[in-house]
Amino acid sequence: MAYTGAGNLALDGPDPRIHMPSEQQELTQMTPEHYKPSFEESMYWAALEREHEATTTSAMEASHYSGLHKKILGRGEKKDDSVSDHTYPPDKKHGSEPRIVSEDERHTAARALRTAGWVSVFYLITTDILGPYSAPWAFSQLGYVSGCLIFFFFGAIAAYTGFLLWWMYLKLDSARYPVKTYSDLGGRIYNPIVRHGINILQSIQLLFNVAVIILGNGQGLSQVAKNRVCFSALCIIWTVVGMVIGQIRSLRNFGWLANLAIWMNLIVLFCTMGVVAHSGPNLVAAVASGLIDSPADAVPIVHSAVIHIPFTNQIVGVMQIVYSYGGAMLFIEFMAEMRRPWDFWKGMVCAQLFIFIVYMLFGLFVYAFQGQYTVNPANQGIATFGWQTATNIISFLSALIAAGLYGNIGIKVLYVNVLEELFGFPSLLSKSGRYIWTVTVLCYWSFAFVIASAIPQFSNISGIVAALCILQFTYSFPPLLFLGFQMHVDAIEGDRPYEPGMTESPRVDSWGNWSRWKRAITKYWYFKLFNLLFGMAALATAGLGAYSSILGIINGFKDGSHASSFGCQSPVA
């Protein structure tokens, strides 16, 4: 099963998809490449994996600190064998004997590649989100009360769905049958069609994320240039920069860059809050964004608890809040790189609290001072040119890190899981694969430029991404996946216990028999019904969000309130 994880960003090392030595690839290959384990097998080996992690984590940590102490003192470091103490039952089912190396050595090699802790996960989740810059505009569409309630509601259910993903991962992942991506989880619970569908949707989201970055940076650069350069040309500049960055296949050193991006975002937040509190709104950007017809039409700033505007406009505002909780797409990848995946909940909870508190307070603060003139993204609504330029430049650097992250992962997801697996393209490790990678990068960033320049409406295009992609990974898929997971678990209770090396299936019936469906449905039926309705409601919300965003795009072009496609007029300058 192809590895498309992004969690290795937590490490200060190369991307194991590309740079893992062939010896380690051989050691970590537990079973034949195309073998799909049964649900019972996955749960059996996952239970042993969790037991192994619980008994060895403390020994590994003690060895780590002991080794660090010896390095400081200049002494040699003794090899740590703590992870090899656990013995797994032999499994003759897949012809794994005779082995070149022992099962414990294979397991040790697989475990050695997992080094991330929950603090790294916290940084990566908060970096994965493009930032809180859309939160003030969301409040300008919803108002104080509605905005706060929706921020809290979506944050709470994002935490719930995050726990669902975490629990399924713990129950299905093992060194023998690893779950490395979101699509792996979908394929393990349902079928390969679901896995391929998730991979394609993930590629689409990452492509649109890159397009949003190009559009946002193009807007910022047009403000720095005081609209003296054609906007589409500025977008081309960022596209070319992205093409150059995209040639780097390794994600080495992205761990500390991810941390740096958080601090740069915080600097922009604090600068924006400080400036808007002592200056008026950016009326030029408000006119360019279609908020007013001309600066002469400006009226005193208005803000209220509830905003009375068309419902579809408010839905686009809701999609900006959904965008804030869009890190779930990579949760599985992050867990796949953790030394102890059980601790993932700590990083996830801290990240969700950070997003909820910081993003919401920032949105409330800026909306309180700019009201109906709030621009998306918020820092481009600063009226003082010097501060506006400073925050734009810092945002450029932060966006370059995000562009490198999204572009690299997105192209690898596209290449490994779609081009290589479905269409038989050569491996990325081959010489021809390297040439195809270069062409793929150029095409990928070109498509992103077309999207950004064709639809220069930041709020509406980000609303489409949130509705069609982000909302699925964060709110629709987890409850529907957990529904299938729970049905499998309850159906297994009537089967014989799984044991390694079984020549016959432990199942007493199949999904073609009503008896299996009865066991799967009747137990905890109310919880299954809740998750089913939850998933359906999320899908309906996604449809409503997509409709509202598309309608906003159409209306924006129709009434001429927004910049034209592939034009030279900036959307904010």
From TrEMBL:
The keyword Transmembrane helix belongs to this UniProt entry's keyword annotation: yes
Name the domain of life. Eukaryota
Q: What membrane topology is given?
A: Multi-pass membrane protein
Q: Where in the cell is it found?
A: Membrane
Residues passing through the membrane, by range: 142-169, 200-217, 229-248, 254-276, 315-336, 348-369, 393-415, 435-455, 461-483, 525-547
Q: Which InterPro entries match?
A: AA_transpt_TM (IPR013057)
Gene Ontology MF terms in the entry: L-amino acid transmembrane transporter activity
Question: Residue ranges under compositional bias (Polar residues)?
Answer: 22-31
Q: Where is this region: Disordered?
A: 1-32, 75-100
Key word Membrane present: yes
Please identify the protein, giving its name as recorded: Amino acid transporter transmembrane domain-containing protein
What is this organism's lineage? Eukaryota, Fungi, Dikarya, Basidiomycota, Agaricomycotina
